[in-house]
Write a structure and sequence with these properties.
- Strands 2-1-3-4 form a four-stranded mixed β-sheet, covered by helices on one side.
- Helix content is about 65%, strand content about 10%.
- A hairpin with a 4-residue loop joins strand 3 and strand 4.
- It contains four helices and four strands.
- The two termini are about 35 Å apart.
- By secondary structure, the protein is α+β, with helices and mostly antiparallel strands.
- The radius of gyration is 26 Å and the shape is rod-shaped.
- The longest helix is centred in the N-terminal third of the chain and has 49 residues.
- The chain has a domain of about 100 residues.
Length: about 200
Protein backbone atom coordinates (compact mmCIF):
# COMPACT_ATOMS: atom_id res chain seq x y z
CA UNK A 1 0.00 0.00 0.00
CA UNK A 2 1.61 3.28 -1.08
CA UNK A 3 1.46 6.54 0.82
CA UNK A 4 -1.36 7.93 -1.25
CA UNK A 5 -3.44 4.82 -0.61
CA UNK A 6 -2.55 4.91 3.07
CA UNK A 7 -3.46 8.59 3.29
CA UNK A 8 -6.68 7.89 1.42
CA UNK A 9 -7.37 4.95 3.73
CA UNK A 10 -6.53 7.05 6.78
CA UNK A 11 -8.70 9.88 5.51
CA UNK A 12 -11.53 7.43 4.82
CA UNK A 13 -11.21 5.90 8.29
CA UNK A 14 -11.02 9.32 9.96
CA UNK A 15 -14.00 10.52 7.94
CA UNK A 16 -16.01 7.39 8.73
CA UNK A 17 -15.11 7.71 12.38
CA UNK A 18 -16.02 11.39 12.37
CA UNK A 19 -19.29 10.64 10.56
CA UNK A 20 -20.14 7.87 13.00
CA UNK A 21 -19.37 10.11 15.94
CA UNK A 22 -21.30 12.95 14.31
CA UNK A 23 -24.37 10.73 13.91
CA UNK A 24 -24.19 9.74 17.57
CA UNK A 25 -23.88 13.37 18.57
CA UNK A 26 -26.70 14.38 16.31
CA UNK A 27 -29.02 11.68 17.61
CA UNK A 28 -28.27 12.78 21.14
CA UNK A 29 -28.84 16.44 20.25
CA UNK A 30 -32.09 15.61 18.46
CA UNK A 31 -33.31 13.55 21.44
CA UNK A 32 -32.42 16.33 23.88
CA UNK A 33 -34.08 18.93 21.71
CA UNK A 34 -37.24 16.83 21.42
CA UNK A 35 -37.34 16.32 25.17
CA UNK A 36 -36.80 20.03 25.82
CA UNK A 37 -39.48 20.99 23.32
CA UNK A 38 -41.89 18.43 24.86
CA UNK A 39 -41.25 19.75 28.36
CA UNK A 40 -41.61 23.36 27.28
CA UNK A 41 -44.77 22.60 25.33
CA UNK A 42 -46.34 20.73 28.25
CA UNK A 43 -45.47 23.52 30.66
CA UNK A 44 -46.83 26.19 28.34
CA UNK A 45 -50.03 24.17 27.73
CA UNK A 46 -50.64 23.66 31.46
CA UNK A 47 -50.13 27.37 32.13
CA UNK A 48 -52.44 28.32 29.29
CA UNK A 49 -55.20 25.90 30.43
CA UNK A 50 -55.10 27.23 34.02
CA UNK A 51 -55.39 30.89 33.02
CA UNK A 52 -57.50 30.51 29.88
CA UNK A 53 -60.84 30.89 31.70
CA UNK A 54 -60.15 34.37 33.01
CA UNK A 55 -57.41 35.90 30.86
CA UNK A 56 -57.46 34.31 27.42
CA UNK A 57 -55.82 37.18 25.62
CA UNK A 58 -53.01 37.61 28.17
CA UNK A 59 -52.33 33.90 28.33
CA UNK A 60 -52.07 33.47 24.56
CA UNK A 61 -49.62 36.33 24.37
CA UNK A 62 -47.56 35.02 27.25
CA UNK A 63 -47.60 31.47 25.91
CA UNK A 64 -46.36 32.56 22.50
CA UNK A 65 -43.60 34.62 24.10
CA UNK A 66 -42.53 31.69 26.29
CA UNK A 67 -42.53 29.25 23.38
CA UNK A 68 -40.35 31.57 21.31
CA UNK A 69 -37.95 32.11 24.22
CA UNK A 70 -37.86 28.40 25.04
CA UNK A 71 -37.29 27.47 21.42
CA UNK A 72 -34.53 30.05 21.14
CA UNK A 73 -32.95 28.80 24.36
CA UNK A 74 -33.25 25.17 23.24
CA UNK A 75 -31.58 26.03 19.94
CA UNK A 76 -28.89 27.99 21.75
CA UNK A 77 -28.26 25.08 24.12
CA UNK A 78 -28.21 22.62 21.22
CA UNK A 79 -25.71 24.77 19.33
CA UNK A 80 -23.50 25.11 22.42
CA UNK A 81 -23.66 21.37 23.04
CA UNK A 82 -22.90 20.67 19.39
CA UNK A 83 -19.91 23.03 19.53
CA UNK A 84 -18.54 21.35 22.65
CA UNK A 85 -19.03 17.88 21.17
CA UNK A 86 -17.41 18.86 17.87
CA UNK A 87 -14.47 20.41 19.71
CA UNK A 88 -14.08 17.24 21.75
CA UNK A 89 -14.27 15.11 18.64
CA UNK A 90 -11.63 17.10 16.79
CA UNK A 91 -9.42 17.32 19.88
CA UNK A 92 -9.54 13.52 20.00
CA UNK A 93 -8.70 13.19 16.31
CA UNK A 94 -5.85 15.69 16.70
CA UNK A 95 -4.43 13.71 19.61
CA UNK A 96 -4.64 10.48 17.60
CA UNK A 97 -2.85 12.16 14.70
CA UNK A 98 -0.12 13.39 17.05
CA UNK A 99 0.36 9.84 18.34
CA UNK A 100 0.41 8.54 14.78
CA UNK A 101 3.21 10.97 13.88
CA UNK A 102 5.37 9.31 16.52
CA UNK A 103 5.01 5.90 14.84
CA UNK A 104 7.44 4.23 12.47
CA UNK A 105 4.63 3.95 9.93
CA UNK A 106 4.31 7.75 9.82
CA UNK A 107 8.07 8.19 9.43
CA UNK A 108 8.15 5.67 6.58
CA UNK A 109 5.10 7.19 4.87
CA UNK A 110 6.47 10.72 5.20
CA UNK A 111 9.86 9.90 3.68
CA UNK A 112 8.25 7.83 0.91
CA UNK A 113 5.80 10.63 0.01
CA UNK A 114 8.57 13.25 0.00
CA UNK A 115 10.73 11.02 -2.23
CA UNK A 116 7.85 10.57 -4.69
CA UNK A 117 7.20 14.30 -4.88
CA UNK A 118 10.88 15.18 -5.25
CA UNK A 119 11.05 12.84 -8.25
CA UNK A 120 7.86 14.32 -9.69
CA UNK A 121 8.96 17.96 -9.40
CA UNK A 122 12.22 19.17 -10.88
CA UNK A 123 12.72 22.02 -8.46
CA UNK A 124 10.99 22.25 -5.12
CA UNK A 125 11.30 23.23 -1.47
CA UNK A 126 9.93 21.17 1.40
CA UNK A 127 8.54 23.07 4.41
CA UNK A 128 8.34 20.75 7.40
CA UNK A 129 8.03 21.00 11.16
CA UNK A 130 11.39 21.20 12.92
CA UNK A 131 10.47 17.99 14.71
CA UNK A 132 10.35 16.08 11.39
CA UNK A 133 13.46 17.59 9.77
CA UNK A 134 15.75 14.73 10.85
CA UNK A 135 13.55 12.33 8.87
CA UNK A 136 14.46 14.13 5.65
CA UNK A 137 18.24 14.55 6.10
CA UNK A 138 18.76 12.12 3.22
CA UNK A 139 16.98 14.50 0.81
CA UNK A 140 18.92 17.68 1.67
CA UNK A 141 21.19 17.27 -1.34
CA UNK A 142 18.18 16.82 -3.69
CA UNK A 143 15.99 19.69 -2.52
CA UNK A 144 15.88 22.49 0.02
CA UNK A 145 14.40 21.41 3.36
CA UNK A 146 12.99 24.39 5.27
CA UNK A 147 12.26 23.83 8.97
CA UNK A 148 9.26 25.76 10.26
CA UNK A 149 7.97 26.54 13.73
CA UNK A 150 4.35 25.96 12.71
CA UNK A 151 2.60 22.97 14.20
CA UNK A 152 1.61 20.98 11.14
CA UNK A 153 0.66 18.02 13.40
CA UNK A 154 2.29 15.96 10.67
CA UNK A 155 3.03 16.13 6.97
CA UNK A 156 4.64 18.96 5.03
CA UNK A 157 4.17 21.68 2.44
CA UNK A 158 5.87 21.56 -0.94
CA UNK A 159 6.74 24.65 -2.97
CA UNK A 160 6.89 23.78 -6.67
CA UNK A 161 9.44 26.32 -7.87
CA UNK A 162 8.70 25.66 -11.55
CA UNK A 163 5.03 26.53 -11.16
CA UNK A 164 5.44 28.83 -8.17
CA UNK A 165 2.73 26.95 -6.32
CA UNK A 166 2.41 25.66 -2.78
CA UNK A 167 0.98 22.19 -2.18
CA UNK A 168 -0.21 21.48 1.34
CA UNK A 169 0.18 17.92 2.60
CA UNK A 170 -0.13 18.76 6.30
CA UNK A 171 -2.49 16.95 8.66
CA UNK A 172 -3.31 20.31 10.18
CA UNK A 173 -4.85 21.62 6.96
CA UNK A 174 -6.66 18.35 6.23
CA UNK A 175 -8.14 18.39 9.71
CA UNK A 176 -9.13 22.04 9.26
CA UNK A 177 -10.84 21.21 5.95
CA UNK A 178 -12.74 18.33 7.57
CA UNK A 179 -13.84 20.54 10.43
CA UNK A 180 -15.08 23.20 8.02
CA UNK A 181 -17.09 20.59 6.10
CA UNK A 182 -18.43 19.24 9.37
CA UNK A 183 -19.37 22.73 10.59
CA UNK A 184 -21.21 23.45 7.34
CA UNK A 185 -23.81 20.90 8.31
CA UNK A 186 -26.93 22.60 9.60
CA UNK A 187 -28.40 21.56 12.92
CA UNK A 188 -31.73 20.84 11.21
CA UNK A 189 -30.03 18.43 8.80
CA UNK A 190 -28.85 16.05 11.50
CA UNK A 191 -30.41 12.66 11.16
CA UNK A 192 -31.10 13.14 7.43
CA UNK A 193 -27.51 12.42 6.40
CA UNK A 194 -27.21 15.35 3.96
CA UNK A 195 -26.66 19.07 3.75
Amino acid sequence: MNVKEKLAFFSKVATQEAQSRRLEILRDIEQRMNEAVREITLTAKKQADERLRSETYKIERKKNKEIIQASTEARKNAVELRSRLIQGLFDGVTERLRKYTESEEYKTDLTRRVAELIQKHNRCKIFISKRDVPLLKFYEDKTEIVPVDDDYIGGFKLMNLDKNSLEDYTYQSRLKDERERFNELKLADYGRGSK
